[in-house]
Amino acid sequence: MKTRGNLAVLCTQTATDAELLQQLDELVADAARGNGQAIGAIAIAFGATLYAEIREALGDALQRDAADILQDFLVSLAEAKLHFPRVRGSALPWMIRIVRSIAVEHRRQRSADTGRPV
Questions:
Q1: CATH top-level class of 17-114
Q2: What would the 3-class secondary structure string for the chain be?
Q3: pTM passes above 0.70
């Protein structure tokens, strides 16, 4: 912190977009290895985004199952069941692809269980 007269000026360094993407990739890679703190950070920072993607993939009939599917994704991370391919900048698209895939499979299973499309 620098001081100018009575005014304290806080000097901060701003990360570039590339640095932020790299940090997010590292966070998701840590989560995919079961790191609880990384999983918690993802749940807080991206939970709402992932939840919205799940709801869209489920369709109207299965909206009530969205929270369970988000939890399934987070548990799969905790159990290190998912492999994150370390391609720069791919963390958020990868997470969205995974939760949508889980949601679509859930919808298919429900359709098979009931014998009618949902």
A1: mainly alpha
A2: CEEECCEEECCCCCCCHHHHHHHHHHHHHHHHCCCHHHHHHHHHHHHHHHHHHHHHHHCHHHHHHHHHHHHHHHHHHHCCCCCCCCCCCCHHHHHHHHHHHHHHHHHHHHHHHHCCCC
A3: yes
